[in-house]
Amino acid sequence: MRTSPWPAAGGRSLSIPTLAGIGTAFPPGRSQGELWDGFFREHFENRSIAERVFRNSGVDHRHGAVDPLVEDVRGWGTQKRMERFMTEGLPLGVEAIEACLADAGVDRADVGLLSVVTCTGYGTPGVDILLARELGLSDRTQRLHVGHMGCYAAVPGLAAVSDATAARGKVAIMLCLELTSLHLQEPTRDVEQIVAHALFSDAAVATAVVPDAPGGFEVVDVVARTDVEHAQKMRWDVTDHGFRMALSPRVPKVLEKHVAGVVEELLAPQNLTPADVAGWAVHPGGPRIIDVVCEQLDLAEEDLEETASVLRENGNCSSGTVLLVLDRIRARRDLPDGAPVVMMAFGPGLTLYAALLRVRSS
Question: Residue 234: beta bridge partners?
């Protein structure tokens, strides 16, 4: 039996927080070609640079709670977009959580903590309260909202719910609910906006963290790095017409400076190197970011195949994307008991978060 890496408290060993299940839900989808030909070609005035960005985005297919070929939200105010987030997000969240509970073999009556992670919609009472009601969770269920952290938010969210599982034995559900399609902006010649509109997509992804579960991924450690000198290179600004992404083409160069150091900080205390890692769940922020991670960690292209395939088939779904990659890794790879897996994601700040997981086979 492995010894828990989590410290003792009050004279007893703490529970081992284990990611024991994942559930997903998606709104309807369209191909990248359909979206370009049917809407974004005219939106971006048929500019050749915009078409190149769309064609070279690494995205073949995306999902959207709002389909721009059917409904134009460009002129909507932020209030109307937030109201729509509640309407569209609730059923997607319920579907993802129910699938997650079934996958983990967890009864909803045992859920002690519900966390909702999002940067695309808000309201009070929030979607977390509405989800608890719809799912019939206990009125004693604790709640945690992780808001506006962006694409890396699943990792600090996982750290927070894992701490609750380790220290207090809570069965925790974390839902990443992102509806980026609600934030379509007015036409612009800004290349950063073109890139954002070519990459982002919608999804609801839930995961269950269970104390001492016999199977899944043990959450071993989490590290972070924030380069505040470059904070303005990636932003998610709240405006009167929804949220607006600022995404500098310099982001991969900044990440290039930090990827190797963060991974070393994560792995070295466990006497591990990148060569020991059995799976890399890396947030697919775009094709260049995938290349940077491979280059800095000396990884082969196939090491990040799950990352590239999620980008290709689902687009960048903000916080939930790294969990989609992890879900694909566990489905496609034969991971032995004790094998280390790394989750890594990037976002505004400019911030890089990474988590070390360890396979627990039932």
Answer: 247
Residue 148 phi/psi, 5-degree rounding, is 60, 30
| Cβ-contact 292, 344 below 8 angstroms | no
Q: Render pLDDT for 194-234 as a digit per residue (tens, 0 to 9).
A: 999 999 999 999 999 999 999 999 999 999 999 888 877 78
Q: How many residues does the chain have?
A: 362
Query: Which residues fall within 8 angstroms of residue 133, CB to CB, at 6 or more apart?
Result: none
Q: What is the residue type of 6?
A: W
Radius of gyration of the chain (CA): 20
CA gap 146, 120 in Å, rounded = 11
Which domains, and CATH codes, for the chain? 17-211 (3.40.47.10), 216-360 (3.40.47.10)
The CA distance from 312 to 305, in Å, is: 10
Do residues 358 and 339 make contact, with C-beta atoms less than 8 angstroms apart?
yes
Cα angle, residue 348 at apex, residues 343 and 350 outer, rounded to 5°:
85
pLDDT per residue over 320-338, tens digit each? 999 999 999 999 999 999 9
The two beta strands, 234-239 and 242-247, are antiparallel
The model's pLDDT over 251-263, given as tens digits with 9 standing for 90+, comes to 888 888 999 999 9
Global pTM exceeds 0.85: yes
For residue 81 the two structure tokens come to: 């977009």
